[in-house]
Amino acid sequence: MEINDQQVMKKLICFLIFLFFVSCSEYVDKPKNLIDKTKMSEIIADMAINDQVINLYPGTNLESGTRFILKTHNVKTDDFVASYRYYIVKQKMEAILNDAQKIIIEKDPKSEKKIKGNTEIKTTELPKLERR
């Protein structure tokens, strides 16, 4: 009986090791046409500016502006979506967004106050957590 128990234990350990290696694989594969971080920052900065134009002129079309931005950067929609998803999963989007903010500030220095004001959390405005 001892030999049989040892064989079962070996198989169980091998199976657990196999599960460990399988679970450590990538969650999202790197896209074939991955957009580099600097170009991604430029695209997101342009999209943010486009979004503000939409707020100023409510009758305009956001979708056509987005298509125009992607076309000027020579990027396909599917490539942008796949790259965006990849950077989100890899937790690299925060650095890209910070670079996009810098690009916006370079284009319009007056926007720095608005950008910095939106990113700072004001503790006086946070709601109090109470149990009832």
Automatic annotation (TrEMBL):
Pfam families: DUF4296. InterPro entries: DUF4296. Residues 31-105 form the DUF4296 domain. This is DUF4296 domain-containing protein. It comes from Chryseobacterium formosense.
